[in-house]
Structures are given as C-alpha cells and as structure tokens.
Amino acid sequence: MPAGGEFDPADRVLIDGSVLANAPFRPAIAALKQRPARREIDRRFVYIDPKPDYRSISFGKPGEAGEGEEKKLPGFLSTILGALSEIPREQPIRDNVEAIEGMSRRIRRMQHIVDAMKVEVEEQVAALFGTTFFLDTPTPARLQKWRARAQDQASARAGFAYAPYGHLKLSAVVEELVAAINRLAPPEGDIHRRNRRDALWTEIRTRGLDRLSGRRGLGASGDAVVFFRTHDLGFRIRRLRFLARELDRVVEAKREVRDAACDAMRDAIYGALGLYLEREGDNWLAGMDVPADADAASWIDALGDRRDLIGADAEADNLVAAGLAQLPKDDRRIMLLAYLGYPFYDIATLPLLQGEGFDEFDPIKIDRISPSDATAIRTGGAAAMLKGVEFNSFGAFFSRAYRENDYLWGRLHGADRLIDIVASSVTGEGALPAEELNAIKRRAFHAILDEEEERLPKVKALIAEIRGEIGVI
Prior knowledge:
By secondary structure, the chain is mainly alpha-helical. It has 3 domains: 21-26 and 51-91, no CATH class; 109-353, no CATH class; 367-473, no CATH class. It contains 18 helices and 2 strands. A two-stranded parallel ribbon has the order 1-2. The longest helix is centred in the first third of the chain and has 37 residues, at 93-129.
C-alpha cells in the first residue's frame, strides 16, 4: 500500500479467504510426496462435498467488463456467486480425484506385474544363492555382500532394459538433489533456478555418469554404482516398502492370529525405513556448511557426506538381519528372496511408473463426506436435509434456523462418514459386523444431539425428529 494515505481505505476491495479454499486438492496432492509413511498406514484423501448433486451458476467474474465497457468494482452478489462458481471451475475437484485414481491405478498395475514376475525372480535369486550354506542364517555382513551381488547380477541380466531404467533412476536422483539444494539455499529467481539445475547436470556429465552402462553394455559402470550407492535414497525406500508388502501379503497372511515374529520383522523394516526417510528431510540437512554460491560439485559431495547412505545401509542391515532371525526358517527364506530379488522387480517397474508414486506400494483411497453418502439416519441427499442449498448455497446466510439446521446435519454426517472410513480400514474376518457398526453410530449421533440441544434453540423440533429416526441406543 502506498505511504502517505494516498488512497481511501473505504475504496479497498476485501474478499473472504474462503474463496481460495473451494478446491484445495491440487496443493494436497503436491503435499502427498512430502508425507512419506514411516510405518504401516492406510493412505486416504478425505474431502467434503456438501452439495454433490447441485451445479454452481455463474454471473461473470467479479470486476469483469466486456469490450468497450467501463471496468467496475466487484459487487456483493457477483463476488459471492463468483467464489462459488468460477473458482471451482478453474480447479475442478473431479480432475484431481481422477489424478489420484490414475496414480492408484498405476500402483495396482505395478502390483500385478510384480506378482507375475515373482516365480521367475525367485528362481533367479535361488540360482545365485541356492547353494550358499549360510543363506538361512543371514548376518549384517552377509546381507551387505549378498545385496551387492544380487544388484550387480540384476543389472547385468537386464541387458538393453538397464539403460532406460538407469537413466530414469539417475534423473530422479539428480532432480531430488536439485530440490534439496533449492530448499537449503533458495534460488533468487527462475533464471537462477534453471542455471543451478543445468550446472548440476553438467557436473553429472563431467563425471561420466550419463554413460551408465558398463563394459559390453552389461550392467552399470563403476562410476554409476558409486554414485547410486552414495545418493540413491529412492531405491532403498522402495525396497523396504516392497519388503513390508511381502511380509503382509505373503508371510503374515498365513497366520490366523497375531505373530510376535512378524511384529518384530515389521518393526525392523520400518525402523530401517526411518533411517532413510529422515535423511530425506530438511532437518537432517540443516546446518550444512556449504556457501549458497558453491559450485555443483561441492553441493553434490556435501549432500552425499551429510546423508552417509552407506553408513545408513549398515544400520539397516543390522535391523533387517535381526528381524529375519525372529522368523521361522521358511518365512525367513521368503523374505530374504524378496529383499535380494528387489533389484529385478525395480528394473521392471520403475520405467512403468515413470517416477510418480514409485515409493508407494499401496493405492490411495478416496473418501467423500457428503449428504449423499451419509445415509445412516436419512436418505435423499442434500435436498432432504439441508436448508442452505437454496439460493446457490447461500440461503443460510439469511436465516439462523437454516444455519443451525445445516450445522447439525454437518456434524451428524461427519460422524457417520468418519466411522465408516475408520471401519473400512479393517476387512475380512476382522471387519465390524453391520449391527455393531450401526450401534456405534447411534451412540455417536445421540452424543452429538445431547451436546448441541441447548446450543441450537431454533431446531429443537428437528432434534426430536432425528432422535426418533435414530432409535434407541
């Protein structure tokens, strides 16, 4: 704002911040990659859609003028209607939901490919280590040696398929380094950001890393192996997530009751995973003694030294070996074949996913909180329960009774759907019976009505009516 009171504050145009929050899916999706799981989770996006069956209307954007017309300040109604209709259309929820579903679809496709490859991969690994007397008694030192051998053989046996895989992996590593440097030393603008990225790629080529293949085109070159051992966080994270999936789907699925050995193995996997995830975060990199204007080589070497992935590998081997020791012999061999065989799976699946969601092995579930989905008390959608849907969802602005009505239904619908969402995370024999789930909902509904009855004097008749529809606890 110019100094000296040049403009009258009465002429200022102020717009409610909720205009910008109508469709927040895009930043939420962007944040997903910054929220990696450190333990077994059920990954979901939950969004609120209070009027899924209503279409917003438009009266033109606030302040918009046609050709030859004088530009006008936004009016009261045009601003409200614009917020409800124009903004969501600029960033539609449906597009973002479809983007999440597309990501989940690729993850499911990857799972099918991994399952189809399993027999062949296990045969390859068994051929490498089947005659090793100590395979059933892995130690940290043996794990380290076996991992290196399995990875070398996987890249060598991939043939021509290794080149695109290696370059995609190199690109992911370099871009992650660029992002880390930009967070630690924010660039001064877009040109600075592009120049910094170009400098890192120039350094990569100077080190000969753009020529990934080894002799006779088999496997990775020595320089590439050293670089990936120093900087490839993504591969290590993917391997441990894969191991957690195999424990759940192959080993623990055979148990009828909870097994302490499986719990110990899971703790070991997620403990090892945490070693790498914390090195991904900015807290681990804080306080690095690198000038902001340091050259690309200095940044690359400093990040490698600070993260010390080879040291983390030794800690992870200790954890995984201790977890494997808790399992019965047959299950231990299954998990070890998965751990050593992962390079074969990664070479096949990483190009398929093209770097999107490639550190996740579980599809992302999408849940909506809406009158159309919360049907435990009453069906019919928004029209059967909400009053504020009138006047393009602005009707409750003029009536306290309407606001109390919609607020109450909002709490009830939220409880209804959140109970459904939590209950849906347990399937199969452990799932809640329908009668028990309905009893939980009735208790929650009555607790809400008890809490709100004195606060909402305009809808006492509605509360009594809802109590009758809910029934006794």
